[in-house]
């Protein structure tokens, strides 16, 4: 799952990026509204953390531009503690949730997980597919209760497939959602990750749909 962090305060941006990467996300960052608008308009994100007080172009304007262009990714806005007018303006502009500064990192992570779950139509923090369980709170996967040992990229591929289980996911979609912007992307590595996952999962869970991509299914 790929997240964009838009925050002009360097230390907070780094803290957010570090926490999200530790939680298993691919992370891009932007420090001003112009760069944020470009990234959100040209790349695919599973969620965006957007500070409203940005240089060059404020967060509300960025959000309005995304929504006007039909960009529907979930957006969590960051506001000042007493900035209730900003919260109202942000929600009206198309934000899905808000968090007031200062905040606890665990709350931000929980709110992001909830936004991503709701976008995929999932009610629980634990995603199930046959014998496979993905605990999004702890970034862990297990089969019949036995924990799986996964690399960070294997986890990202599995998490994306689990959030979109029973759907055909193209290789290009996987590439867009498991790698950050500055990562040297090689489409062949997706096949490698899929191959590794198949060795760790029960047979038939990950199907290859010829010419289209992959599907995670409990009916395999």
Automatic annotation (TrEMBL):
<dbReference type="InterPro" id="IPR001789">
    <property type="entry name" value="Sig_transdc_resp-reg_receiver"/>
</dbReference>
<keyword id="KW-0597">Phosphoprotein</keyword>
<dbReference type="Pfam" id="PF00486">
    <property type="entry name" value="Trans_reg_C"/>
</dbReference>
<feature type="domain" description="OmpR/PhoB-type">
    <location>
        <begin position="124"/>
        <end position="218"/>
    </location>
</feature>
<feature type="modified residue" description="4-aspartylphosphate">
    <location>
        <position position="51"/>
    </location>
</feature>
<dbReference type="InterPro" id="IPR039420">
    <property type="entry name" value="WalR-like"/>
</dbReference>
<protein>
    <submittedName>
        <fullName>Response regulator transcription factor</fullName>
    </submittedName>
</protein>
<keyword id="KW-0238">DNA-binding</keyword>
<dbReference type="InterPro" id="IPR036388">
    <property type="entry name" value="WH-like_DNA-bd_sf"/>
</dbReference>
<dbReference type="InterPro" id="IPR011006">
    <property type="entry name" value="CheY-like_superfamily"/>
</dbReference>
<dbReference type="InterPro" id="IPR001867">
    <property type="entry name" value="OmpR/PhoB-type_DNA-bd"/>
</dbReference>
<feature type="domain" description="Response regulatory">
    <location>
        <begin position="2"/>
        <end position="116"/>
    </location>
</feature>
<feature type="DNA-binding region" description="OmpR/PhoB-type">
    <location>
        <begin position="124"/>
        <end position="218"/>
    </location>
</feature>
<dbReference type="Pfam" id="PF00072">
    <property type="entry name" value="Response_reg"/>
</dbReference>
